[in-house]
């Protein structure tokens, strides 16, 4: 078989199994197996999960032959299924949300396909399903990101303890902002979103946190003279989704309180070149997510820069410099960086 044929069929197989795995996660099959004290037959999985046995058995066939689920024979010769040691803890973490991506990409496939054609639509905005998956990821990552902010930004913890004004743009479902607001009751936090329904949902969800308020803002349309100034602005996985990141960064700069106002953001930080990242399947996954999610989201305007998640750490840093910031880039994970953006020192 040619190299291409081998690679294409291997990846197609994995994609098909990935969608099946997403389905198993969504209908609760992994959770039923994780909660069980001993292996279960397909009938037992179906009964506990409130599902149809024949569908469950077929899917368990897929998962067990792919070695995602263990399979053995009971004394009565019936097949029984279980998860390997340690799988339950993994499923309680970030992976559970990540398993939602194949189903998400499948559901958005035709809308994104239409966008490829010259006479097709420009954009497919994030759905509730996207925000739910991001919130699931944030459930396990928010405390770690909050910790990174506090460790990497000098004096931030002291300032937050004393009481400062903070805003998060593109807060999604607001978990990171809520985490920090609860940790620092003397500071005043705003969770901002461009999607009106999200702002309302966040109000309903986090109204019990007294030092957290909510606002509706389009980062690409910050007024020349902003209504309010902040000591610290942050965002997470937002800059690459914006149609005009430089205008947004300039808008944030106008909002920062002189002279020590600070912007920090977390973003994907690849090399920026498929040539350099060739063979790196993690980067390839980000390009896939870019194709189905980030590019369609950032085409809010036809003149969008449409960076995508893989424009590269240097490109992102240079946009922040172009907006007038002094920028420091700190690698926090293999493909993620913290961008610390300071106002230029006034002479
Ligand atoms: C990838 S999501 C990240 C959400 C959240 N920060 C997280 O880490 O889960 C990008 C967010 O940016 C928001 N966004 C997109 N365009 C925006 C704009 N023009 N102004 C402000 N926020 C925007 C989206 O609504 C979305 O919630």
UniProtKB/TrEMBL annotation:
<dbReference type="Pfam" id="PF21320">
    <property type="entry name" value="WHD_Rv2258c"/>
</dbReference>
<dbReference type="InterPro" id="IPR053173">
    <property type="entry name" value="SAM-binding_MTase"/>
</dbReference>
<feature type="domain" description="Methyltransferase">
    <location>
        <begin position="161"/>
        <end position="269"/>
    </location>
</feature>
<feature type="domain" description="S-adenosylmethionine-dependent methyltransferase Rv2258c-like winged HTH">
    <location>
        <begin position="16"/>
        <end position="84"/>
    </location>
</feature>
<dbReference type="InterPro" id="IPR029063">
    <property type="entry name" value="SAM-dependent_MTases_sf"/>
</dbReference>
<protein>
    <recommendedName>
        <fullName>Methyltransferase domain-containing protein</fullName>
    </recommendedName>
</protein>
<dbReference type="InterPro" id="IPR048711">
    <property type="entry name" value="WHD_Rv2258c"/>
</dbReference>
<dbReference type="InterPro" id="IPR025714">
    <property type="entry name" value="Methyltranfer_dom"/>
</dbReference>
<dbReference type="Pfam" id="PF13847">
    <property type="entry name" value="Methyltransf_31"/>
</dbReference>
<dbReference type="InterPro" id="IPR036388">
    <property type="entry name" value="WH-like_DNA-bd_sf"/>
</dbReference>
